[in-house]
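worker-03 picked up job from queue 'complexes'. Input manifest follows; two sequence lines, order preserved.
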Amino acid sequence: MTTINGKYYLAGSSDACPALLSLSQDSGVEITAFEEVLEFREPSFRVEPALGSTPRIIRFHDGSMFETSEFEKFNALEKQLGTTSFTASLIKKLEERWRSAILSVFAVIVFCILFYLYGIPLAASKIAETVPQSMRAKMSEDTMALMQKITILRETNIDDERRAELEEIFFDAISRTNLPKDEGYEYKLTFKDAPAIGKNAFALPSGEIVVTDALVEVCSDDQLRAILLHEIGHVELQHGIRSVIQDTGILIIISLAIGDANGVSSIVSALPALLAESHYSQKFEIESDTFSCKHLQQQGYNPDDLADALQILHTGTPDMPFEDLVSTHPSLKQRLENIKENTLKVSP
Amino acid sequence: MEDSSPTPPPSPKDFPMQFHGSASEYFKIWIVNLALTVLTLGIYYPWAMVRTRRYFYANTELDSHRFDYLADPKKMLKGYLLIYTAIILYVLGMNNIISPFIGFIVIMALIALGPFLMAASLRFRHHNTSYRNVRFKFLGRTSDAYAVYWGYALLTYITLGIMFPIFRLKIYEYIFDNSSLGKTPFSYKGEGGPMYTIFLSALGLMIAIAAIFMTPIIVFGIFQSGNVEEGAAATDPMFFLIMGSIYLVYFIGFAFISGFIRAKTLRYNLSVLTLGYEKDVSFKSDLNVWKFVWLNFTNIFATFFSLGLLSAWAKVRATKMVLSSISVVSQQGDLGSHESVNETDQSATGEAAVDAMDFDVGF
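worker-03 finished. Artifact:
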């Protein structure tokens, strides 16, 4: 009969004494301490799950406990008792082996990458589908108000006639896309004089698309159609709402992860958030370019107009270091390559 | 434990703290639990947290007895789910996905409940920490938590930070003076003077670091700005270089100062802490402040550049240095006998049942 040397701690006080532990005849345990023999049967005792190389502990229902560092003997006794749960022994095994530790490193990395590439975008597009037009309109109003604050949006200087022409191109392009009508977007073309943002156009989730005077002045009608289709792509693919949800998701995950880290995180967390947000944004730009390409060809126009328009927009903006990583837009080279790819695909 | 035979007068004795944890063993435990947490989308977190914390407690030895952490993860899950929900609602509200008003309500509720959560957390943490089969207790009242965390925080704000060391002192006083090992109380006799010395020297260090590192950057910046034409500054690689250096200095300063404050406050707090009705058990730490600052500094950099992988190693290393610097001094020659508080005594104090939450509250 094996006996295990350890310490027996009395209930209710810090007093302890050397003790012996062994199996009792009726498959319980026996403690020999203070020159007495105490017997415990299940469920009046509980074996604490093993953890690293910390002492093994049995707690008794009266509040006393037994502690030992004779691991091998204790493991044998534990086996005979049959008290170890499957999960407890599995977790202990996982925690002991380098193989599972290395596997865990990969599991964490792979999970994070998959979640980032597919999990968050998928969840965001599902949530975006449930957003009603009234809320999209509200978000668009807020965005316009914010734009008004950080840049100056003045009344347009483009004359009524030219505006009417462009509106015709705009609604013609929309009607010929044959997109489902039940999404409820309220399409609207707005012209603004906004020197601070130069040659530019942007789409709001409601369906309102804003073009600057500078853009209208430098682009041909065909190029403007290509740009407008790119912006319509942003609306139809719900990029505005999806990006807000995705950025929020990243923020939530980072804030939950910070709870676990110590001190370093507050300074470090801003960088991954920035990188993730720009990566998502670049993906949306490429998606909209593809959308524009596809519909230009379907409507009998040349996708080169989009390529030309992008080149015009790009002149005058300087290259910055690390631009590919932190910019909201992909590089011109990437976008032109994407257009070429999509041109070949549809018209071989 | 009465002894009838005449004993020689007890002589004071030192009991050093020991930490037996190893970085490689802890790394495996930590990463496996992290993986399980991630794969279960966070549900496993309370179990992971209990296991990793228990690793540190059960590897801490004093007078050949170990500490232990006894929390039940199942009971903690509810508290964590509540906090997860609050964070998610707050972030959603702030980003206009749901009404910002809800986000505002959540943050106000967190501020309003902050001291309450703090007190509940301390009660839970103490109740689930044991030494020699005796649980620690936290007897601080929730109303006192409001006085400290709201009252002194407000005072600090009004006095533009001048009262900050007193704010910290009151926090330590609230935590330590209300703690006991079973029925044996701790007492804390901290004073304002030494606290001011710690925080003023930290401020001095901060200014010195800023002066030493920032001066060349600023001089360089001014020198460079002469060469760059107006308007191009924001896109100039020089701009990035200068911003990067400022970021780095902030990082270095943070690593340096946080280590300094932690080491200094630990040494001081332990020197004014006693255990027992007769206050015959005292504490001391001979932690070398500059060694700890260097350790903290290298830990932060190692954690950052290993993308968090070395954080397990860093934590074991810091714990080892801190714990092995601490010793417990007993005037009686032993660490005494301590009675547990039984649960009927607990409810008699009028405090609600122990709340199942244990949040890391940085102190």
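worker-03 released lock.
The radius of gyration of chain A is 33 Å.
The domain at 4-96 of chain A is CATH 2.30.29.30 (PH-domain like).
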